[in-house]
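Entry — protein

Goal — fold tokens:
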Amino acid sequence: MPTHDMPRDRTSKRLAGLRAYAFAEIDRKVEELRRRGVKATDFGVGDPTTPTPRIVRETCKRAVDRHASAGYPSYVGSAPFREAAASWMKRRFGVALDPATEICATLGSKEAVFHAHEAFVNPADAVLCPSPGYPPSYRGTLFAEGRPVFYPLRESEGFRVPLGTFRKGDAARARFLWICYPNNPTGAVAPATHLRRIVEECQERGVTLFSDEAYTEMYFTREPPHSALEFGREGVLAFHSLSKRSAMTGYRVGFVAGDARLVAAFKKLKTNIDSGVPNFVQDAAIAAWSDEKHVHAMRRDTRARRDALVDALARAGLPRCISDGTLYIWQRLPKGVSDVAFATRLLDPDIAVAVTPGSAIAEPLADGTNPGTGYVRFALVPPLADTRAAGRRIGQWREPLREHRP
């Protein structure tokens, strides 16, 4: 018999203080509909439904036999993996990296984004995080006992990092800055001049720049998006993933690249957290980086879905919000329409469409306002036919939208 009363809740205060992960909540709601016999069209989570490219699948099959012993992989990625990543960075961005010291394999970008703070952030360090933004950037800050300081991404400013705010208040004391371009969730693409200013500002102020570049290959602009590493390496760590570029979300593979000192610290962290990316997955990733045809096809298909959905939402009385990149539409709602109420209504069985409320992936600023309020995010992942059908269902629900037409 125990001599002490057992605690009812063993959850850490750190974990208990987090609200539910937005995308896990969407999955739960979609599953609830499925159990009721309703198949929802899921625009909530950015998980491509396009089949993983054949070259990747075939390479992975062969690699499973080649690595028959299934031993532990390298913590930091095999030499061929890091060389392939470096070669792709050179071809794509013109950035020459040392595979031995400036690249480290990761299990996709989510775990890398979350855990990076544990390598660099000390308790109470201020970390500048975008709002709206990718939740692991600020949640990782909290788990490292850092202090997230949120900066707004506003439509009126092109959803660009407001550099002027970094010289004021808590932001002026920040030691780290998170950016993401092309941007999740807004779909904005930062011009080269703006990225250069960000890198220069960080280097002048001694701020470490974390650049989430998971969406650099998902763009609809004439000029391809840039990497922050094109404008400087000192104090810069870029995060890359094959999840969206090559429809490999389930493979969990990517890399970090940049300042050799930062990469060395990240490698040390990785040896204490996981045992590396499976060898057969690394081989599949090498094949993915060697092929660009499937990437062109992915962009073409995503553009078609974007255009179809934008047109359907416009017919339903919503503003035309056309993203320049990523897999997302950051849809502004008419004045007075709640993003949470809108998303909840779309989940009703007669519409059966899942989206992400903007306020669920944005955090309140110091003044109490939430930059995600009044927006919803559509992830352009359902097939084109399903996208069009969902658009028609939304279009049939016209009156509440027409009443609030701007």
About this structure: The chain has two domains: 13-52+294-403, 54-289. The longest helix spans residues 293-315. DSSP finds 14 helices and twelve strands in the chain. The mean pLDDT is 93.
